[in-house]
Amino acid sequence: MSAAFRATFARDGFVDVSAAIPSGIRAAVGAEVIAALDAHAVRRDLRIAATGGTLRRYRVVGRDTLAAAAPVAAAAYRSEQLLSLVADIAGEPVVPVPYVPEELIATRLETAGDTHGWHWDDYGFALVWVLRAPPPEGGAALEFIPGVSWNKSAPGIDAILAARRPVRAYPGTGTVYLLRADTTLHRVTPLRRDGFRDALCFSYAASRELQREVSHETLDAILSESPSRRRRVPV
């Protein structure tokens, strides 16, 4: 199974890994993170300069709240089994990200027009748990273009979209997929009608990334973090 996952990921920058994660774990993570979204999610409606002004319109729960309210998910993030799975598919050592707020985050699209606009992630790998999703006709599709790096000072998304057609996928409820998030331009398309698209994102870094300097404009804007609250962990 891992060899097939690895080949697909190397080719597409995306692979559905649901079959490698026990259904009981997926159900437990889904139940507690949906409850955390119900209880704690904060509404966001903003444009992110570092991705060329693309829109983020959804509800969000940050890492610290999830760590307290969703212990199964928080434990899964650092589990040796999951880290080994991601590393095996990636073909290189993978570790928790060195920037604590980026470890895990949950989002909820709920109102027609809600979207997670075009963007890249700060670190190499995003393991995304789709906890609830509408049918394809409801919107909230995943679109992505692999093999595109992020220039934060000049993201050039319009030019990228003019040159290349995105791949579109419809990961359904219970799907878990791995995305090469730092070199894959991606988005969740707008909801076409009211409904729920709940997702949990685990961010991982390649070991080689730990020594590079990384800024966090996108996440800090979404979580409204002040500079005094930003935290890194030792590398």
Describe the protein in words.
The protein is of the alpha+beta class. The chain has a single domain, classed as q2cbj1_9rhob like domain (Jelly Rolls). It contains seven helices and twelve strands. The chain has helices spanning 2-12, 23-40, 63-69, 71-77, 80-90, 157-163, 217-223; strands at residues 14-16, 42-48, 54-61, 94-96, 104-109, 115-119, 125-132, 142-146, 167-169, 176-180, 184-188, 197-206. Strands 1, 2, 3, 4, 5, 6, 7, 8, 9, 10, 11 and 12 form a twelve-stranded antiparallel sheet that branches. The longest helix is centred in the first third of the chain and has 18 residues, at 23-40. The two termini are 32 Å apart.
Query: Structural class of the secondary structure composition?
Result: alpha+beta
Distance from N terminus to C terminus (CA atoms, Å) equals: 32 Å
| Share of helix, binned | 25-40%
Q: Please outline the major beta sheet.
A: 12 strands, antiparallel
How many strand units? 12
CATH class: Mainly Beta
Strand content: 25-35%
Shape: globular
Structurally, the number of domains stands at 1
Mean pLDDT: 92
Helices and strands, in N-to-C order? Answer: HEHEEHHHEEEEEHEEEEH
Count of helical stretches? 7
CATH superfamily: q2cbj1_9rhob like domain
- Under the CATH scheme, the architecture is Sandwich
Which topology does CATH recognise?
A: Jelly Rolls
Radius of gyration: 16 Å
Q: What quaternary form is this?
A: single chain
Low-confidence stretches: 225-235
